[in-house]
Amino acid sequence: MVFQTPVPADSEFQTYVMPPLKKLGGGVVIEAKWNQIDQGGGVYDWAPVDDMIAPYLSAGLKVALLLVPTNDGTKNSATPDYVLDSPDQDICFCSDYPGAMGRPPGCYTDHADLTGFPVPFETTFSAPWQAFIAAAIAHYNSMGISYARIGIAAGGESIAHCASEMQNLVSPATVQQLETTWDTNAGAQYAATAAAKPTFPIVSGVNCNFFQMLGDCQDAANLAKLAAANGIGIGSEGLQKSDLTSQQTSNDWLPNFEAYTDVPHQLQTNTESDPTNNNALNGTGSWTVLLPFVGQHCPNPCIFEGYSGDFRGAYQPGYTDQYWPATITTPYVPYQQALDTLAAQQ
Fold this sequence. Notes:
Structural class: alpha/beta
CATH superfamily: Glycosidases
Number of strands: 13
Radius of gyration: 20 Å
Shape: globular
Distance between the termini: 7 Å
Number of helices: 13
CATH architecture: Alpha-Beta Barrel
Order of helices and strands: EHEHEEHEHEEEHEHHEHHEHEHEHH
Largest sheet: 8 strands, parallel, barrel
């Protein structure tokens, strides 16, 4: 399945991208931030997300949900305030997650700034997040959703921002114990998700959160094993050109996909792609190289998520952005051909 994320609500997308997406049997990913829906006290307002979904389903496109517990990077605007305000909830700040106030690195319970990274393995966070997931599954089970990507922490992924700061919250205060605590929480979320009996596939992105600290990607393997044991699909949002030649693909997705072939698999490019396939703009590479690799190594059922700019470059005349210079003629036929081939393999 081929999906676009994020979804721009404009006439160019409707005119140039929606028709070929429909022809490919693909669709769009709709982001649903936790605090957009959860009003606290077990009250959920689904209307904002339902209103975003409805036009695409009516147009014959598939729709996937991205359930986001906290933002990925710098400043949090996705977690409900009632969770962040819980007396025992630690909120962490670090160089890659400074929050709004830029507090000194560390984890705090004074709640002076609610835009930091909340510790996801504390029950003040994990219990209401798991309840929200169960409520979302119950609400969307009969609405024709193609799949949902559900995060453990940042974004729709399992990213552990401020790991060094969180290390002091576990006992013993070691990286290994932090990894164990992180994985235990993930396993509990996977089990709770499966217990909610979704009628559509669930995918969870797995990450090498502690690679720099431990020198290995074992945590991604641990998460993949826990996910597959609960029938949860395995995803990676780091697909890039180096995956074709490196023995260790980003987040080690390739060995994990090969180890667990009976669950869904999902890949998203690390950034918008570079149709020139050089490293001048980014290291993601071109779809003409990446998509054949996906078709070869992503077992069915396989989900490919691409960025909006790449779909526009493929189908919209005269499209330009920082990755699509005016020297490249759009619509870009090589991308259309790569998408056609990938979709035909599903």
